[in-house]
User: Fold this.
Amino acid sequence: MFKTIVLALDGSEESRQAVPLATALARQDGARIVIAHVEERVVGKGGGPIIATEDEIQAAIRKEADDLSGEGVETSVEMRDVMLGGPAPAIVEIADKANADLIVTGTRGHSGLTGVLLGSVTQRLLHLAHCPVLVAPPTDRS
Assistant:
């Protein structure tokens, strides 16, 4: 059913909830995984990454791709950086370029009004993506 799955990772534990789901689907269908990571940068002179540990996050994502490939799941990494607009449009661009059949992502578990006010990347993906988006719920559901 799926040939190419884009797995959106931001380095958070919540986004990692999507890894087993995307991996299981890829194994089931013999699909490849494209891990999408978007670094948000501060706008302005000398603007750098918003997250101080961005280098560590990118290294962990590359290791995840290597591990999945080592386990027999064809995996590549696409990284982008953005200053405006947030990560969702860049993830959609990566998915479109990869001709993805599915985007898999995690969520921080914000509900209703909180999610709307925070402008969730997951919610933006649901509105912008040209393919289905599968959202892995957070494991802590208290």
User: Anything to note?
Assistant: The chain has one domain: 4-136. The helical segments are 13-16, 18-29, 54-70, 87-97, 112-118, 121-128. Residues 4-136 form a domain with the Rossmann fold fold (CATH 3.40.50.620).
